[in-house]
Amino acid sequence: MEDTVLDLSAASTNVDGCMSPLLDAVQRGRTTADLLRHRLTLRTRHPHRQLLHALLDDMASGTTRHLELRYARDVESAHGLPVARRQARQDGTGAICDVEYDGFDVLVELDGRKGHVGDGRFRDMDRDNAHTVLGKATLRYGWRQVATVPCTVAAQVATALQRRGWTGETGRCSRCREAADEAA
User: Fold this and answer.
1) One digit per residue, pLDDT tens: the chain, 184 residues?
2) Degrees to nearest 5, angle at CA 149 with 72 and 153
3) Can you give 38-100 as a three-state secondary structure string?
4) Which of 24, 33, 51, 174 can bridge 60 by disulfide, Cβ–Cβ 3.0-4.6 Å?
5) Taking Cα atoms as reference points, which of 79, 81, 54 lies closest to residue 175?
6) Is the Cβ–Cβ distance between 82 and 168 less than 8 Å?
7) How many CB atoms lie within 10 A of CB 140?
8) CA 23/CA 34 separation, integer angstroms
9) Residue 106 forms beta bridges with which residues?
10) How distant is the alpha carbon of residue 130 from its chain centre?
11) Cα dist. 164→55, 68, 135, 167 in Å?
């Protein structure tokens, strides 16, 4: 299974296509990030080796969906935000949140289409309200925000964290630098 997944990844010509076979296989329970990493280290060549090692690190920490990966890579890591806990069970509600910044009571929910329409939308509202009552701030983003304006998302998350005690500063990713150069 792992070799097939790595072969499919190698055949891809774009980043998302390269990552899809790995994410899909792990999400469906057909393999694990550790097994894929082991098989990748046994290969002498893979066109996306560096990207896959980074992806497998993210997957080992709980990232299993494309949107979560894009957030971890393009928002959190690219902008120097603290490393969050993934798929975090919440005290007081028992809910599992996509991203939690421990010690700051900031939650980030990453919403794709699946599970977030109809009754799912109201379940999310109930959960957000329960977290607010407990003093936690929930920021909610979809694919469009994370994929097209990750710098804006990072700035919002950083502001929420700073208002709750984070003393760090956000870094500027390549998109931030390009935007600053164009504005100058």
Assistant:
1) 999 999 999 998 887 788 888 888 887 889 988 999 999 999 988 888 888 887 787 777 667 678 888 899 899 999 999 999 988 888 878 888 889 999 999 999 998 755 445 555 677 788 888 888 888 999 999 989 998 999 999 999 999 999 999 999 999 888 888 877 787 7
2) 55
3) HHHHHCCCCCCHHHHHHHHHHHHCCCCCHHHHHHHHHHHHCCCCCCCEEEEECCCCCCEEEEE
4) 33
5) 79
6) yes
7) 14
8) 13
9) 101, 137
10) 23
11) 30, 23, 11, 9
User: Which two structure tokens, joined as six digits, stand for 149?
Assistant: 């304006």
b/e burial code for range 101-117 (CB count within 10 A of at least 16 → b): beebbbbbbbbeeeeee
Distance CA 152, CA 47 (A): 32
